Amino acid sequence: MASTKLELFRKRRLRVRNKLKAVNSGKLRLSVHRSNKNISVQLIDDAQGRTLASASTLEKEFGLVGKNNIEAAAVIGRAIAERAKAVGVHEAYFDRGGFLFHGKIKALADAAREAGLKI
User: Fold this and answer.
1) What is d(CA 80, CA 117) in angstroms, rounded to the nearest whole number?
2) Rounded CA separation 51/74 (Å)
3) 20-55, pLDDT tens digit by residue?
4) Contact between residue 30 and residue 41 where contact means Cβ atoms under 8 Å apart
5) SS3 91
């Protein structure tokens, strides 16, 4: 059975998410999504089913619309860390979804760590 790239991505995303949920029950989830043009991140409380904070390159305050590069990912990482602190969150687990942990995803995580969010 030939699997498409999208099916493989979905399997990888679910595999990563289920392993993380098994290990980190009770913690908040920092979920990342990357498209060809933008990157976005959400701080999610799975127990309540709520998003507590989010940041994206689509927000006009950053001036990064359509910029999907490592510098933009670092700006978003710092922004989500600041917004998490404002909500009172200092620790979360990093859900990279089906994306590999390098490049933009790694830059976002490193910037969030440097800004004080424990991942």
Assistant:
1) 9
2) 21
3) 888 887 889 999 999 988 999 999 998 899 999 999
4) yes
5) strand
By residue count, the chain amounts to 119
Q: Which of 58, 30, 57, 49 is nearest to 115 (CA)?
A: 30
Buried b (16+ CB within 10 A) or exposed e, 79-103: bbbebbeeeebeebbbbbbbbeeee
Structure token digits, residue 24: 């980190």
CATH number of this structure's domain 36-119, picked from the four choices 3.40.50.261, 3.40.718.10, 3.30.930.10, 3.30.420.100: 3.30.420.100
DSSP 4: P
